[in-house]
């Protein structure tokens, strides 16, 4: 069933129904603000709590207690007056807080007094030789299948990469009797020493005990190769084998499925296309929006919460969602704000939830050779541009990602740079001896997700149609 | 410290880059100053139309001059600029529009211009098989085509630098002043001095002209464009409509560019534009009606470039009417890309020889300010 937004104007529009968006929308609606929550998925939860209201995996141990915490968030959202629309693809947001959203193949426009972006994270590109072969997929995609449909791998499977999500996915696959032949851990040995000064905070964080028991659970059942320094996939039109180097020794194994993961990065496309200023985060190696302590961006009225504000994990995302919503309530309905938990309380909750993050960021900082490819390795999948192509363009004068478009069309395909943007920035920065901040990022343009010409053609006419126009 | 050069060109669009390049070819050493990077604005993000078709009569001689350069563009800049010549077709959607086309072609012929040619429904269908059955004809300019604007502007900039132009990008020209027979312009900590100053600053050129005592009726606009996903090849020429606001082009990779002059809101101080999706929907409706083959294509991206539009829709081109050594080259009013190569060549002739064979007399700033020189 498809439902268009009930109104043209809302006090608060929240985009994304993951942990941050669920918390923000419930808080805002409970305070009496007219609230619309728009979400791309078929149900609430985002990636962390994907299919929380519908998963066929009902044994609570299999997905873990952290997953089921999402059910409470959904409960409070449903108890509130927030209007919630799923399968709603927001394809444009501008600095006037005009939102264009596609719902069931028809587009509608709504205007907000405040927008809270809770668009979450994307998996970091993992551009190794052969990463575009059928049979290679991201861990996140595998997890989506697992949570939505209880599907797990049954062929010869290798998981490669690093980070908390990699271990979580491995544990979940094993609990559902899926097959994992080997885990190739690409964590750099030096990272353990670099992370040590931050270990105390981590030891007292909730991640520690959970992370440790999960790794123990996985290591008891699967061969784990650590210190992997080189990785490639090969096959003739289809993945056939994975080759890696660990401890100076190369090994090649036949596989049917390779799952890649080296952490997540903020999903910045909608915020950037609206004109929100972002800066390069040297620890998390990604672009993060410039925000104040309440999550307000450089564009008045647009706040960002959750992993889209910088990776912080699900617990932090919930608190950031509440903080952004409280800031909106304080601005639009100060009397109602008095009834909500105080900002100071939320900020101390956030500090608690973020404890141990620096340790994780330092430990799981991906190695340069897995971020910055060379030679014939594909960088831009949409336009099939290799690392060498990018370097050749730099040599004849391309100075940054936007200039590179003129030479190679990188970032101009349907993915709008989601799969190549970070790689292109870091590759060009390295080649030109500049920082990623100096090199910059693609200027992103709406529609942030493609819409059909027919859908755009069906948008109702406006007075602008009769305005004088000129020919280009 | 002041650096002496032969000419200072302000603005790294196709016009500034082309003028810098042609000055180099004439043996001069210019500096090219661009506040962002070459091709950042309208010159790099326009529809790429290389069009003599449907031009204002005063700029036709410049357009024809430019066309000759486009046809040998690789000889000039060592880059093909992805220039392809499959003609441009103006479609009349009904008999009234066709009558206007007929009168226009007759007028051009009387003036001695033959590049526009009236076509009937049969020839229109041959050139543009996908066009709706109801269209009775139109006009074709067969030598016209399209190029990649960012690639082109970048190629002009690169070649100018190779031939000895100094290029400064990322810092705006400031403190423009005249003294002791030389123009002085600051670029951050540097100062350049030259007997010649070319104002080719696009959307920002009106301010420079006004500051030098030559205000002109110019506004800042941002025409919108959108591009689709790849669709099977179905059209060669660029198509524009006589009545409705649409231009339409399919690239060799299958993507289709849809433009036509609907405007976004420009914020030139922030280098930003805010798109008007309801106007873009109008373009989408027109395409939907005329080219059924396009209906299931996706819109992948939309954008707008910031540029200058004159009240009378023709550029300001030629020497200042107040200051010796100052030349204007701006206000191309949404149709400057094709003119860039020729305008640079003519501007270099004006600067170096004091005159040109190409008729540009109706384009001067003296149409707003009687000359005081």
Automatic annotation (TrEMBL), chain A:
Q: InterPro entries per the record?
A: BFD-like_2Fe2S-bd_dom_sf (IPR041854), FAD/NAD-bd_sf (IPR036188), FAD/NAD-binding_dom (IPR023753), Metab_Enz_Cyan_OpOx_G3PDH (IPR051691), Opine_Oxase_asu/HCN_bsu (IPR017224), SoxA_A3 (IPR041117)
Protein's recorded name: FAD-dependent oxidoreductase
Q: Which GO terms describe its molecular function?
A: oxidoreductase activity
Q: Which residues form the FAD/NAD(P)-binding domain?
A: 10-318
Which regions form coiled coils? none
Q: Which SUPFAM superfamilies match?
A: FAD/NAD(P)-binding domain (SSF51905)
The residues covered by the SoxA A3 domain are 377-458
Keyword annotations for this protein, in alphabetical order, are: Oxidoreductase
Under Gene3D superfamilies, the record lists: BFD-like [2Fe-2S]-binding domain, FAD/NAD(P)-binding domain
Organism of derivation: Bradyrhizobium frederickii
From TrEMBL, chain B:
Keyword Iron among UniProt keywords: no
Q: A single Gene Ontology molecular function, please?
A: oxidoreductase activity
InterPro entries referenced in this protein's UniProt entry, alphabetically: FAD-dep_OxRdtase, FAD/NAD-bd_sf
Against Pfam families, the record matches this protein to:
DAO (PF01266)
- List GO terms (cellular component aspect): cytoplasm
Keyword set for this entry? Answer: Oxidoreductase
UniProt keyword annotation of Cytoplasm present: no
Q: Which residues form the FAD dependent oxidoreductase domain?
A: 6-350
Which named protein is this?
FAD-binding oxidoreductase
* Organism field: Bradyrhizobium frederickii
């Amino acid at each position: 069933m498809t439902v268009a937004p009930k109104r043209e104007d809302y006090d608060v529009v929240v985009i994304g129904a993951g942990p941050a968006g669920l918390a923000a929308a419930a808080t805002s609606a409970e305070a009496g603000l007219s609230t619309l929550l728009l979400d791309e998925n078929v149900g609430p939860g985002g990636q962390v709590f994907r299919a929380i209201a519908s998963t066929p995996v009902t044994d609570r141990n299999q997905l873990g207690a952290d997953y089921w915490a999402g059910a409470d968030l959904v409960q409070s959202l449903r108890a509130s007056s927030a209007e919630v629309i799923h399968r709603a693809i927001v394809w444009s947001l501008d600095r006037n807080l005009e939102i264009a959203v596609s719902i069931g193949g028809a587009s509608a426009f709504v205007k907000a007094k405040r927008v809270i972006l809770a668009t979450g994270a994307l998996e970091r590109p993992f551009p190794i030789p052969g990463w575009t072969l059928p049979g290679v997929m991201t861990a996140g995609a595998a997890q989506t299948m697992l949570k939505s449909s209880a599907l797990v791998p049954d062929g010869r499977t290798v998981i490669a990469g690093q980070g908390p999500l990699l271990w979580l996915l491995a544990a979940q696959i094993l609990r559902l009797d899926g097959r994992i032949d080997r885990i190739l851990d690409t964590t750099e040995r030096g990272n353990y020493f670099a992370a040590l000064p931050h270990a105390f905070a981590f030891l007292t964080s909730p991640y520690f005990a959970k992370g440790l028991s999960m790794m123990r659970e996985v290591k008891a059942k699967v061969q784990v190769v650590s210190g992997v320094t080189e990785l490639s996939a090969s096959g003739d039109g289809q993945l056939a084998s994975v080759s890696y180097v660990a401890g100076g020794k190369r090994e090649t194994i036949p596989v049917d499925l390779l799952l890649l993961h080296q952490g997540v990065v903020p999903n910045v496309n909608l915020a950037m296309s609206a004109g929100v200023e972002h800066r390069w985060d040297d620890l998390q190696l990604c672009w993060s929006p410039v925000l104040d302590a309440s999550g307000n961006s450089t564009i008045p009225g647009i706040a960002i919460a959750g992993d889209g504000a910088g990776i912080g994990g699900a617990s932090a995302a919930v608190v950031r969602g509440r903080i952004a919503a409280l800031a909106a309530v304080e601005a639009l309905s100060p009397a109602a704000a008095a009834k909500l938990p105080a900002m100071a309380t939320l900020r101390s909750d956030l500090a608690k939830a973020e404890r141990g993050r620096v340790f994780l960021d330092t430990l799981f900082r991906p190695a340069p050779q897995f971020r910055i490819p060379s030679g014939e390795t594909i960088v831009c999948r949409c336009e099939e541009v290799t690392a060498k192509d990018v370097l050749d363009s730099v040599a004849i004068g391309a100075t940054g990602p936007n200039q590179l478009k003129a030479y190679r069309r990188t970032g101009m395909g349907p993915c709008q740079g989601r799969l190549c943007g970070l790689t292109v920035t870091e590759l060009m920065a390295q080649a030109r001896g500049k920082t990623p901040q100096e090199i910059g990022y693609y200027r992103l343009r709406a529609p942030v997700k493609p819409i059909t010409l027919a859908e755009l053609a069906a948008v109702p006419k406006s007075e602008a149609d009769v305005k004088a126009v000129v020919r280009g | 410290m002041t650096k002496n050069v032969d000419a200072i060109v302000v603005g790294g669009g196709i016009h500034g880059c082309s003028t810098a390049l042609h000055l180099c070819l004439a043996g001069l050493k210019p500096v090219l100053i661009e506040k962002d990077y070459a091709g950042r604005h309208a010159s790099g993000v326009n529809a790429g139309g290389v069009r003599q078709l449907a031009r204002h009569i005063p700029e036709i001689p410049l357009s024809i001059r430019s066309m000759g350069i486009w046809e040998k563009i690789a000889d000039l800049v060592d880059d093909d600029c992805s220039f392809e010549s499959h003609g441009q077709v103006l479609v009349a959607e009904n008999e009234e529009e066709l009558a206007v086309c007929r009168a226009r072609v007759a007028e051009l012929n009387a003036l001695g211009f033959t590049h526009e040619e009236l076509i009937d429904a049969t020839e229109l269908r041959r050139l543009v098989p996908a066009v709706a059955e109801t269209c009775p004809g139109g006009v074709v300019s067969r030598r016209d085509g399209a190029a990649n604007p960012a690639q082109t502007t970048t190629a002009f900039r690169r070649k100018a630098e190779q031939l000895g132009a100094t290029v400064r990008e990322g810092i705006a020209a400031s403190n423009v002043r005249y003294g002791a027979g030389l123009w002085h312009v600051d670029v951050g900590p540097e100062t350049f001095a030259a007997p010649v100053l070319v104002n080719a600053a696009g959307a920002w050129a009106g301010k420079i002209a006004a500051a030098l005592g030559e205000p002109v009726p110019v506004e800042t606009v941002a025409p919108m464009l959108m591009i689709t996903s790849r669709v099977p090849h179905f059209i060669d020429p660029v198509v524009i409509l006589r009545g409705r606001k649409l231009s339409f082009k399919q690239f060799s990779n299958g993507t289709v560019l849809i433009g036509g002059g609907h405007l976004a809101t420009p914020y030139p101080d922030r280098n930003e534009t805010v798109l008007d999706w309801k106007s873009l929907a109008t373009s989408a409706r027109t395409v939907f009606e005329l080219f059924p083959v396009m209906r299931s294509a996706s819109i992948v991206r939309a954008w707008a470039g910031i540029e200058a539009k004159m009240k009378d829709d023709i550029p300001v081109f030629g020497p200042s009417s107040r200051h010796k050594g100052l030349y204007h080259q701006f206000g191309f009013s949404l149709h400057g890309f094709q003119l860039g190569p020729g305008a640079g060549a003519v501007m270099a002739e004006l600067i170096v020889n004091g005159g040109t064979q190409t008729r540009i007399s109706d384009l001067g700033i003296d149409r707003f300010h009687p000359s005081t020189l």
